[in-house]
Amino acid sequence: MSLWSWARFLAIVRKELIQLKRDRLTFAMMIGVPLLQLTLFGYAINNDPKHLPTAVVDADRTEISRSLVAAVQNSGYFHVVWTGERLADADRLIARGQVQFLVHVPAGFTRALVRGEHPALLVEADASDPAASSNAVAAVMQLPKTALRDDLTGPLAASAPATEAFELRVHRRYNPEGTSAYNIVPGLMGVILTMTMIMMTALAVTRETERGTMENLLATPVRPLEVMLGKILPYVAIGNVQVGVILLAAAFLFEVPMVGSLPLLLLLTQAFILANLAVGITISTTARNQMQAMQMTLFFFLPSILLSGFMFPFRGMPVWAQTIGEVLPLTHFLRVVRGILLKGNGALDVWPHLWPLLVFIAAVLALGLTRFRRTLD
């Protein structure tokens, strides 16, 4: 037999092409994952978010105060979405994450400015994610030099100091020192649970299908819902062990502040674990082998980590990317865990992020149950 045969070589190539043609899911993943990465990194990722939602409490109500608010918006980093008179209402918005910044113009600001008393303008920033607010804070620091340049003219020109017309006080809330661990470590809880819960569940069920042990279930009177829940519940316990390890590391190794209620966080974590396990079960009903299960897990995990606000500022992404991110369980869980640990949010504060998780669980479980019933049939 010759050492090399083009006929044998081309026969092997033809065999692999036929095998790839039959395995359409793998071929689709080979094309889809690179396209997904190009799209997300090329169009959705932005480390310099602008037009951040801002609340304004203008207690002065003068032309000068309105010019200050206009100057804040003209910087391009701020977008006023709420105006009011009560600081408590604005504080609630920033605590719930509905606004990123709070601008407070105190009463008597203009009078003090005219008298040359160098009044203070307060800007509060939600610094739980330092990357989302750092550039905006740097931009707002230039306001005292430029904001009232066109207003302090004529009779008011004598009131304009040579350097800064007023004092700017920036209060970075929830993470005043900008410690990255305060933002990353709580987020890692969601990332680790997403990866492990989906992968372990998808592989466990697919492994049984590959080995033929799933056929034993066909000879038993168990129902599809009972099989699904029986597969899910053991991994709930594993997920809770992971949560305990991460919380202990966060508290004792990284010194992450835990302001809110830990029982509330653990309760809401169960919903997030169930959401990911439901995804894993649904993947297992589609994948024909463990390789496909791994590929589909990656296809779900990649958008989750990139579009949830874990690695990149959520508000820096375009609208279409934010819309996709709002569907993902990780997006809402990150807001829940950071809100409880860093801000001390209560049940009412996190409810806007809990109900999307519950809807997601119901929808994915219904889909998985339908496909699983077909598999058993």
Written overview of the protein:
The protein is an alpha/beta fold and 377 residues long. The chain has helices spanning 6-22, 24-44, 63-74, 87-95, 109-114, 130-140, 143-146, 180-211, 214-218, 224-252, 262-286, 290-307, 319-327, 329-343, 347-376; strands at 52-58, 78-84, 101-105, 120-126, 167-173. It has two domains: 6-45 and 179-371, no CATH class; 52-159, 3-Layer(aba) Sandwich (abc type-2 transporter like fold). It is built from 15 helices and five strands. It has a five-stranded mixed beta sheet with strand order 2-1-3-4-5, sandwiched between helices. The mean pLDDT is 85.
Task: Describe the structure concisely for a colleague.
By secondary structure, the chain is an alpha/beta fold. Helix content is 64%, strand content 9%.
Strand-residue proportion: 5-15%
Shape: elongated
Number of helices: 15
Largest sheet: 5 strands, mixed
Separation of the first and last Cα atoms: 50 Å
Number of strands: 5
**Count of spatially separate domains:** 2
List low-pLDDT spans: none
Question: Approximately how much helix is present in the residues?
Answer: 55-70%
Structural class: alpha/beta
Overall radius of gyration:
27 Å
Overall pLDDT confidence: 85
The succession of helices and strands, N to C, reads HHEHEHEHEHHEHHHHHHHH
Strand order of the largest sheet: 2-1-3-4-5
Task: Sum up the structure in keywords.
5-stranded mixed beta sheet, 15 helices, abc type-2 transporter like fold, 377 residues, alpha/beta, 64% helix, 2 domains, elongated
